[in-house]
Design goal:
With 572 residues, the chain is an alpha+beta fold. The chain contains 16 helices and 24 strands. Among the domains are: 207 residues, FAD/NAD(P)-binding domain, CATH 3.50.50.60; 31 residues. Bound molecules: flavin-adenine dinucleotide and iron/sulfur cluster.
Length: 572
């Protein structure tokens, strides 16, 4: 057995996104306040807690990607004085104009009344990676130890209790042999472990499955594919927020697009965030979210925002969309689950940053109480569940609790359901409630059913002119993605034989289509059932987790690669 160094901490936070950083900052504030009060009163015990935050990206923010229009509610709660703080928070613009477009293939129209969930006046356009870098700086100033480049590989458990996190090994070759630089991942032993891994966290997934923590509905997800463009001034002013519905997605596929005016560049140009979210509960096995996004940019109402501009950044990531009924039980012996890992995303508003920040605060308050009591058992951590239930997080998620499930029967029914929910406090169509769901991959149809026995059609080539539209590899170049090549593949296919046999026949290897980074390829392989086999270009992976979610046989398990591997996002 590998000898692993063990380091003791009070609280280990896994993930340096908004939720994990909010936990760190708020916990440090609570301890500081407590110690000041003890000092002033001259009685009571001061508290000294060892808090550590680990992040798999090579620096805080390297893996952060979002839209993003942020509701300031979460930041107001975490850092009430943020508007006058130094250094200034990296806000691109305050939203001054918003509208929604219904797109058709050749045009579209402005929807006369912007649906209430898409109204954004007073919200803030941000780049999530700039924003979390800023939060990371605050956490460090407060004495939190942040370790970027250190993925949590496994949870350390004693029965159902989480007792810490084992870090990813470094220096293993692709065959699993130790290289000269081999370093076994150490163990961060913790009284309390806070899982803030974002959407489809690999440690959270294992824990939810092992301990049966899943919610009433299975979690469902979407994938967001995004570019940032530098465009001539005036094309898309800072603070303009546009949401789109309809084209390029068909009426059975959930999703929509966005165009957000970001800040000005030093050269006097404007930055624009543009992207498309596609529900990962689509039916067509040949659907390719990246291709759909490229098609969206060909629409004249969209391309005019980009005319004369240049794409400067690319990324993709999944997001949880199941809502309140899909939330897992988020506490237990020695652990809390927060932010996107706990499914705290409002998919009706496409907003989760404020919920992530707030859940991080509630986790910090729970951690503070647990440390004071010297008790991190499930009884003590249950305080987090009570806080969530009594908070505005719960009220907000309750108002859209039937939203995503409403689209399982198509767009028209989904929109009617959403309209009904607006009028009747979150109830679905005809006052239905507690709408059920299925895991997203279960909606994917087999080729024969989808294409009436005619086989998978050959898709027309997109222009991919390298100016407005791009192939996956060109886009990928602009994500800054890099991995150590000689390491075990972090996309673990547990039944590889399926790929060259049943999957070819039944689904036509959808991994080639849904991966936004060209990781999966079917290459010629004489001697196999269909003369082809799966090739995995693991070093292209942007950590979006789509394959782990959408593989129809559920045989792809995304695990952490060596620390620091993955995208190096900017502006996203
Ligand atoms: C395309 C897209 C558009 C969106 N648009 C908006 C928007 O406009 N407004 C809005 O409010 N919200 C939006 N959201 C949602 C919002 O971004 C999330 O709700 C929010 O970022 C969740 O924060 P988090 O801290 O829970 O997770 P994340 O932001 O995902 O952060 C998790 C962090 O944990 C790290 N990590 C994961 N696993 C490990 C591990 N095992 N070890 C170490 N580190 C690990 C990751 O690298 C990452 O840095 C959008 C999301 C997407 C994907
Ligand atoms: S391999 Fe999986 S996690 Fe990586 S980019 Fe492709 S779909 Fe996303």
């Amino acid at each position: 057995m590998t000898d692993r160094e063990v380091m003791d901490f009070d609280v280990v936070i896994v993930g340096g996104g908004p939720s994990g950083l909010a936990t760190a900052i708020h916990l440090a504030n609570l301890i500081e306040r407590h110690n000041a009060e003890v000092g002033k009163a001259g009685q009571g015990e001061p508290m000294a807690a060892e808090i550590v935050l680990i992040e798999k990206g090579k620096e805080i923010g390297a893996h952060a990607i979002s839209g993003a229009v942020m509701d300031p509610k979460g930041l107001d709660a975490l850092l009430p004085g943020w508007r006058t703080m130094t250094p200034k928070p990296p806000v691109e613009a305050e939203v001054h104009e918003d509208y929604a477009l219904w797109l058709t293939e050749r045009g579209g129209f402005k929807i006369p009344i912007t649906p209430p969930p898409l109204r954004n006046h007073g919200n803030l356009v941000v780049s999530l990676n700039k924003f979390v870098r800023w939060l990371g700086g605050i956490a460090e100033q407060k004495g939190i130890q942040t370790f970027p480049g250190f993925p949590g590989r496994n949870l350390v458990r004693s029965g159902s209790a989480v007792t810490g996190v084992q870090l990813q090994d470094v220096g293993t070759d692709k065959h699993g042999h130790e290289k000269p630089n081999f370093e076994p991942g150490g163990i961060l032993a913790a009284k309390l472990t806070v899982l803030a891994e974002g959407s489809r966290g690999s440690l959270t997934k294992q824990l939810v499955s092992d301990l049966g923590l899943a919610g009433r509905n299975p979690q469902t997800y979407g994938i967001g594919v995004k570019e940032v463009w530098e465009v001539p001034k005036g094309n898309c002013p800072p603070g303009l927020v546009v949401h789109t519905m309809g084209y390029p997605l068909d009426a059975r596929t959930f999703g929509g697009g966005w165009v957000y005016g970001m800040g000005e560049t030093e050269g006097g140009k404007n930055l624009v965030s543009i992207g498309l979210v596609v529900g990962l509960d689509y039916q067509d096995p040949s659907l390719d979210p990246h291709r759909q996004f490229q098609r969206m940019k060909l629409n004249p109402r969209i391309r005019r925002f980009l005319d004369g501009g240049k794409m400067v950044s690319y990324g993709a990531k999944s997001l949880p969309e199941g809502g309140l009924y899909a939330m897992p039980k988020s506490h237990g012996d020695g652990f809390l689950i927060i932010g996107d890992s706990a499914g705290l995303m409002n998919s009706m508003r496409l907003k989760g940053i404020h919920l992530a920040l707030r859940s991080g605060m509630l986790a910090a308050e729970t951690a503070f109480e647990c440390l004071k009591l010297g008790d991190c058992s499930a009884t003590a951590t249950a305080s987090y569940a009570r806080k969530l239930a009594a908070d505005w997080i719960h009220d907000e998620l309750r108002s859209c609790r039937n939203f995503h499930q409403g689209f399982h029967k198509g767009r028209i029914r989904g929109l009617l359901n959403a309209g009904f929910a607006q009028l009747f406090g979150g109830k679905g169509l005809l006052w239905s409630d507690n709408l059920p769901s299925e895991p997203g991959h279960a909606f994917m149809r087999k080729i024969d059913a989808q294409f009436d026995g005619n086989g998978k059609p050959k898709l027309a080539k997109l222009p991919e002119d390298g100016v407005l539209t791009f192939d996956k590899l060109t886009d990928l170049y602009n994500s800054g993605t890099m991995h150590e090549e000689d390491q075990p593949c972090h996309l673990v296919v547990t039944e590889p034989n399926l790929c060259s046999t049943r999957c070819v026949e039944e689904f036509g290897n959808p991994c080639q289509h849904f991966c936004p980074a060209a990781v999966y390829e079917m290459e010629d392989k004489p001697g196999t059932a269909h003369g082809i086999d799966l090739k995995i270009n693991a070093s292209n992976c942007v950590h979006c987790k789509t394959c782990d979610i959408m593989d129809p046989y559920q045989v792809i398990n995304w695990v952490t690669p060596e620390g620091g591997g993955g995208p190096s996002y900017k502006y996203l």
